[in-house]
Specification:
Layout (H helix, E strand, L loop, with lengths): L17 E13 L7 E7 L4 E7 L12 E9 L6 E3 L2 E4 L1
Parallel strand pairs: 3-5
Antiparallel strand pairs: 1-2, 1-4, 2-3, 4-5, 4-6
């Protein structure tokens, strides 16, 4: 098992750049079965929130409300909230 890399504050994540952020999952959204599979986990570190969007998945072991996770991926600000699509992740 690998160790999570050093991370930055969610508030400091910059659009179109690769960021590594860490925080607690405060909510999950799962697309219904009649839509394409997608799991969205909202992460909060006290400085901001970011969504981790896992395309093609409806569940991932360990990705659940209250879990602490570190994410790494390219930040997208195309929506109202910053997002990282299909990030690498480490569970604490």
């Amino acid at each position: 098992m690998s160790v999570a890399p050093a991370h930055q504050r969610i508030a400091d994540a910059v659009a179109r750049e690769v960021a590594t952020v860490s925080g607690r999952i405060v909510s999950l959204q799962i697309e219904p079965h009649d839509a394409a599979p997608q799991l969205t986990a909202r992460l909060d570190d006290g400085t901001g929130r970011i969504d981790a969007v896992f395309m093609g998945r409806r569940a991932i072991p360990g990705i659940e409300a209250g879990a602490h996770v570190t994410l790494k991926g390219r930040v997208s600000h195309a929506e109202a909230m910053p997002r990282i699509y299909n990030p690498q992740y480490w569970l604490a």
